[in-house]
Every structure is written in structure tokens, then in C-alpha cells.
Specification:
Elements lengths: L8 E5 L4 H12 L3 E6 L2 H11 L4 E3 L5 H15 L4 E4 L15 H28 L3 E6 L12 H21 L4 E8 L5 H14 L3 H10 L9 H12 L10 E4 L8
Parallel strand pairs: 1-2, 1-4, 2-3, 4-5, 5-6, 6-7
Length: 258
């Protein structure tokens, strides 16, 4: 991994904790110069204490003004951009569509889909000026399968696939590759929280719901943030130089969502 991405400049949204933090760490291990944004101040402080000040910025990717400020800092700190990882997203509520408020719907779409657009729009000129580069958009298994009681989340994650494929066509002639990753059940507090909400909604225990979920996965296990990060590094490196416009699952072959 060492020097695989030497001198490449990367931005990972929601990169101070969770999957984003692991992605940023693996990019840095591959010798990329990596900045992150997040809305979690404590996580940002922890990131800067490890990797240095100037490499983290507080920004809500659904806010156009904040995204503009963030990219101004990216240009100032990195001098350009070669890699954008659109990782920021929220789970949204676990409710039947008829009970979902317009406010919750709009907030979920704003962070998960509008945020990808706003960041990509600012990144594209920088990637073009760099002579090419790579965008990785974080979709979900919810962008591959129907997802009961998660209508807003699924709609956003399916939207990311259309956005990815369209950008790939537009930007391919510029040497900019665009792909999406569709993680399945990624071990960690976020997935556990969603599953506990679903278990409560269904009137069953968390353990029962988890066992049922594993029965829908060919490998009978969840995936880790490391699995996702490894694919990101592959896609943005020269090893993935002819991969673009793809939606790639990392889910152990999950066949359905309940």
C-alpha cells in the first residue's frame, strides 16, 4: 500500500469517524494527502490530533455555502484535488412511507444526495485542472434493493447510482472516473442503531433480527469498514484506471432487505 497514491490529493466527506475515518486512514497509508470534513466537532478534533491541523474542516455537505468554504480550504491546503470520496450520509427515519414527514424526507435527500452533487460540482474543476482523477460516491445496498421503512434513504441511494453513471459519461473524456460503492451491513454503531430501530418496530429482539439478516447474505456475515476502504483505495489508484460508471456492492452477496 505504501506510496500507491503518492502525492495525490484527496477529500473524504464525513471522514473524521466511522467508515469515512477508515477510508481516510487507508488513503493516508497509501501516501495520499488527505483532508476530511465532518459535522462532529469532537471527531474532527480527534482526527487533527492524529494527522495535523489544516486537514479537517467542519462542514455540512447539504449546505451550499459551507461546501464552498470547504473547497476554498481544500484549494488552500492541498493546492488542488485528485480524489473525492463522497461518503457523507445519514440513515433517516425507520418508518413506513405514509408516516414519513416531508421534513425528514427532505433532510435525508439533502444530506445523502444533494451533498454528493454539491461536492462533486466543486470538485470537478479541480479534477479537470489536475489532468484527471477519481470520484467515489457512497451508495448502499439500499441503492440496489428495495428497503422497507427506509423510503427516503433508499430513494437517495438509488439516486446516487444515476448520478454516478451520468457523471461517468460526462467526465470520462476528461480522464475523471466516477464509481459508486454499495456497502451492505457494515459492522458498527450506525448499522446497529438502525437494526435496533427496525427490531423495535417489528416487535422482535435485536438478536433475532440480526440472525434473520445474516440468512439473507450468502457469506452469512456483515462487512467491515476496512472492506469498504480497501475498495476505495483500489478504485482511486492506477489499479482501477479502467473502471468507471460502476456500482459495486460490498455486501457478502445479500439477496434481500427485510
Amino acid at each position: 500500500m505504501s506510496a500507491l497514491l503518492k502525492d495525490r490529493r484527496a477529500l473524504v466527506t464525513a471522514g473524521a469517524s466511522g467508515i469515512g475515518r477508515v477510508i481516510a486512514e487507508r488513503l493516508i497509508e497509501a501516501d495520499a494527502r488527505c483532508m476530511v470534513c465532518d459535522v462532529d466537532t469532537a471527531a474532527l478534533d480527534a482526527f487533527t490530533s492524529t494527522f495535523g491541523k489544516g486537514l479537517a474542516v467542519r462542514a455540512d455537505v447539504s449546505d451550499e455555502a459551507q461546501v464552498d468554504v470547504m473547497f476554498d480550504q481544500v484549494e488552500q491546503q492541498l493546492g488542488g484535488l485528485d480524489i473525492l470520496v463522497n461518503n457523507a450520509g445519514i440513515s433517516g427515519p425507520t418508518l413506513p412511507a405514509e408516516e414519513l414527514s416531508l421534513e425528514d424526507w427532505q433532510r435525508t435527500i439533502a444530506v445523502n444526495l444533494d451533498g454528493h452533487f454539491l461536492c462533486a460540482r466543486r470538485a470537478i474543476p479541480l479534477l479537470r485542472d489536475a489532468g484527471g482523477g477519481s470520484i467515489v460516491n457512497m451508495s448502499s445496498i439500499g441503492g440496489r434493493l428495495g428497503y422497507p421503512k427506509r423510503a427516503a434513504y433508499a430513494a437517495a441511494k438509488w439516486g446516487i447510482i444515476g448520478f454516478t453513471k451520468t457523471l461517468s459519461i460526462e467526465l470520462g473524456p476528461l480522464g475523471i472516473r466516477v464509481n459508486a460503492i454499495q456497502p451492505g451491513m457494515v459492522e458498527g454503531p450506525r448499522v446497529e442503531r438502525v437494526m435496533r430501530e427496525k427490531a423495535a418496530s417489528a416487535g422482535i429482539s435485536y438478536e433475532t433480527l440480526q440472525e434473520r439478516a445474516f440468512q439473507r447474505i450468502s457469506l452469512r456475515r456483515g462487512v467491515t469498514a476496512e472492506d469498504v476502504a480497501a475498495l476505495v483505495v483500489f478504485l482511486v489508484s492506477d489499479a482501477g484506471r479502467n473502471i468507471s460508471g460502476q456500482a459495486i456492492p460490498v455486501d457478502g452477496d445479500q439477496t434481500s432487505l427485510g
